[in-house]
Design brief:
Nucleotidyltransferase, domain 5; 498 residues; seven-stranded mixed beta sheet
């Protein structure tokens, strides 16, 4: 009888499941999208019940794709999730009191700005993060203050909260687990990164009651078993939880001090691992815990861009310039350059290194000769510029350079973008053969937790690289192009602040 590890990637736009055999080869995968809910400009929500339903649906589908396999063949499940997206739920029923508020949501920008002005450096000293609506704490406080009766119910101990992983585990175990790993807790702006415990100071500041928060556990924590009536009639071990980007590091075979990786999903996220060293940035980077194994935390420097694949979705569904994501590559290659047109994908503000919640998307340099190809190419180039800018800040801030960058996520299929990314970084960009690195990383985490994988580093030998993109432009051209894009960024800043 074959045995498999199930990895579930609960992402911003899709929930994906993979089955890995015990030789750490993906044998099947399935994915299902969920709705993006936009109640007001700058607000982004998900229906948590739809998300949970999709977790079950992709599990059933991925098993069906392996001839002869059944749910009984799943040895354990690991889950990664979208990070800062959070919920509050009723302790008795498990029902959420409001939709999940997504990491992209900007409704708490004013509150985050106030924290930044008054205590920004103190907050960063505690949790490694600059105050921003991106993080969970202000979102949770908003729900408590804006859902009728929520604050009173929380004070009575009737409500629980957490990022989506905590709630999914709660529901799958029938309420027997309310816990979260360090990488997830580090997304909330409530964790003391120095002690890896909840910060009483930040809890008091933000007004999120400590009694609502999940227990802090290792990344390789055993959460218990799924309750049959909650998980397709099966009792299966839940063996590990983690956020999506660190999971992608595991699944991409890029684990270790000094390793650089960027994930291209709805947004893009760059991580440089510093191992057991806690390095605090002064240039707009975040310091995070990527995981904690058997009580030992491991750290990374992190940079974020709110929009990556989301810009291509906008080209297709928003303004209809392309019929499919693949067409963006064809159109970008149909012109020699952008003809000095630059795009800034600040649909919901700018992240690293600016952290401007009021920046908005900008297209500059248009003339009567500007065509569709120029605009599409400018959009794709902007995704590489923001990653290159993040790397430049990272290397200058921490004295860090890397021999190469490993890339994963949906956008790695775009060969134009990957080549331009290598050109703008000045180092090779490596693309792994397995595209679903986050879901695969969750499966590998489950294997590590259960003892079938000796270390994450072992995966370096098992993950195959499909493409390596080498830089093809000079350092002078690289700097000129990036600095020109930064001029466009400066024109986009503070646009929505009135």
């Amino acid at each position: 009888m074959s045995r498999y590890y199930l990895g579930i990637d609960q992402g911003t736009t899709n929930t994906t499941a993979v089955l890995s055999d015990l030789n750490w080869k993906v044998v099947a995968k399935a994915s299902k999208p969920h709705r993006q809910i936009y109640p007001h400009p700058g607000w982004v929500e998900h229906d948590p019940e739809e998300v949970l339903s999709n977790v079950l649906a992709v599990t059933e589908e991925v098993i069906r794709k392996v001839p002869g396999a059944t749910l009984n063949d799943i040895k354990a499940v690991g889950l990664d999730h979208q990070g800062e997206t959070c919920v509050i739920w009723d302790k008795k029923t498990g029902k959420c009191i409001y939709n999940a508020i997504v990491w992209q949501d900007r409704r708490t920008a004013d509150t985050a700005d106030k924290y930044k002005r008054e205590q920004g450096e103190r907050i960063r000293e505690i949790c490694g993060l600059l105050p921003d609506a991106y993080h969970s704490a202000t979102k949770l406080a908003w729900m408590l203050d804006n859902v009728e009766g929520a604050r009173e119910r929380a004070d009575k101990g009737e409500l629980l909260c957490g990022t989506l992983n905590s709630w999914i585990f709660w529901r799958l175990t029938g309420g027997n687990s309310h816990a979260t790993d360090i990488s997830s807790a580090g997304s909330m702006m409530l964790l003391d990164i120095n002690t890896t415990q909840w910060s009483d100071e930040l809890i008091e500041l933000t007004g999120v009651p400590k009694g609502m928060l999940p227990e802090l556990v290792d990344t390789n924590h055993f959460y218990g078993y799924t309750k049959p009536e909650c998980f397709l009639g099966m009792k299966i071990p839940i063996a590990g939880g983690i956020t999506d980007s660190p999971s992608g590091m595991i699944g991409g075979g890029c684990v270790g001090e000094g390793v650089l990786k960027t994930s291209y999903g709805t947004g893009s996220f760059m991580h440089f691992q510093t191992g057991k060293k806690l390095v605090k940035s002064k240039k707009g980077l975040f310091t995070r815990t990527c995981w904690m194994l058997d009580g030992q935390p491991y750290y990374l420097l992190s940079g974020a861009s709110y929009v990556a694949g989301g810009a291509v979705t906008w080209l297709k569904d928003g303004i209809g310039l392309i019929d499919s994501p693949e067409q963006s590559e064809t159109l970008a290659l149909s012109v020699d350059d952008t003809d000095d047109v630059y795009f800034v994908p600040a649909f919901s503000g700018l992240a690293t290194p600016y952290w401007d919640q009021y920046a908005r998307g900008t297209l500059v340099g248009i003339t009567a000769g500007t065509g569709k190809g120029h605009i599409v190419r400018a959009v794709l180039e902007s995704l590489a510029y923001q990653v290159a800018n993040c790397y430049r800040v990272m290397s200058r801030d921490a004295g860090i350079t890397s021999p190469a960058m490993r890339a994963d996520g949906g956008m790695i299929e775009n060969r134009f973008l990957m080549q331009f990314q290598a050109d703008m970084l000045g180092i090779p960009v490596e693309v792994p053969e397995e595209k679903e690195t986050c879901a695969f990383g969750a499966a590998c985490l489950a294997g590590y937790t259960m003892g079938d994988l000796d270390s994450f580093e072992d995966l370096r030998k098992k993950v195959k690289i499909s493409n390596v993109y080498e830089p093809k432009i000079s350092e002078d051209e690289r700097e000129d192009r990036l600095n020109r894009w930064i001029e466009a960024v400066e024109r986009s800043m503070n646009w929505a602040k009135r």
